[in-house]
Amino acid sequence: MHYTRISPVSLPSPPPTATATVQSSSGGNMFATVFVALLLPCFAMCIVFLIYLSLLWWSARRRNERLRLAEPVKPKTGKGLSVLELENLPKITGKELALTARSTECAVCLEEIESCQPARLVPGCNHGFHQVCADTWLSNHTVCPVCRGELAPKVPQFSEDHSQC
Question: Where is this region: Disordered (predicted)?
Fold first, then answer.
């Protein structure tokens, strides 16, 4: 038998199998899948948030327009006592107030009325206040700050046409 010597030939490497191709490409696909899975919900939440903000803006704008056009629930009179009516209210000192009123605490500023301080006594209910506090309150309101008793009917109204005599 005769043997021939075969020289070693470098054989090409076998082609990659299908499983190897899927494995190498699945790493890239998995990254893209995870990226899309995280990015899509974030993007959707941002869109929902923007829609929510626009609805809030729209409803606030509509409510402001409605309030501007609507009549107030309680009409603002803005009518307190006039300067002439305030002058007709009794003025006393803190010492006199201590003798006539139940309390010497001013319900407007919540401080004690000292004996030397000027005070006002509300007719009818006999509640006393610092003169400045009472004038400030009664120039904007026609009720006693303590009992909410109406003052307007009890205060004499003087017109310019009639004299006091």
Answer: 1-24
Same domain? 48 vs 92: no
CA 38 vs CA 26, 41, 44, 46, 144: distances in Å: 18, 6, 10, 13, 66
The span from the CA of 62 to the CA of 66, in Å, is: 6
Question: How much is the pTM?
Answer: 0.44
Q: What is the pLDDT of residues 69-97, one digit of tens each?
A: 665 554 455 577 777 877 887 788 888 87
CB atoms within 10 A of CB 3: 5
Helix, strand and coil percent figures for the chain, each rounded to 5: 45, 10, 45
Same domain as 59, residue 25? yes
Region of 110 (left: φ > 0; alpha: ψ -120 to 50; beta: rest) is: left
